[in-house]
Task: structure prediction
Amino acid sequence: MTGNNKVLVVEDDRNLSDTLKYNLRKDGYDVVTAGDGVEALDAARREKPDLIILDLMLPKLSGFEVCRILRKDMTVPILILTAKTDETDKIVGLEIGADDYMTKPFSLRELLARARAMLRRAKMAEGQPGAGEAVLKVGDIEVDIGRHRASKGGAWLELTPKEFDLLAFLARNKSLVFSRDHLLEKVWGYDFAGDTRTVDVHIRWLRRKIEADPNNPEHLITVRGTGYKLEG
Result:
């Protein structure tokens, strides 16, 4: 299933880096490692990995900055690792373009499962129809699947890759309600119990970009006790 997928592990703890490298290689991946933020940027641009596992607390350049810089020109899936339990770190990491996060200490089995899911989802996205697919319209929101971009009222939206995936899925299924677990399965590719707060954070940031008043959304609606739907 993994083929020749390449994973970049960015971690300054040598023992943890070696452990991740060993287990990822055992799972069939090509693995490249970096020990600081500057080295991480060089490796990402040189190696063009299929997935980046990125620690937030790094020497020379923080994981936040690495993620922010990479997101300007790369859509590679990014899984951030943090030793902090501070919710702000997780939210900021997702805000600047990470696809998901894990808090240390974590289960290696879960990390490998998330890596497989993120890579599977990325491959599925690559296989979707190209520019010939019709643009999805929900009210004044337009989602161009082939060109991987969206607009509202004619103005282009600056979306992270996962925000776009979430918007595109909901636009394809206009007015249908999806639970957080269902969205984790369909948008993140998880076939196991994940952290649904990831969904809530992406919903919150997506609302800031498509709603006139994010606190009183007209498009991205919460259905209490059930989940979310997109209306237009």
Summary: The first helix runs from residue 14 to 26.
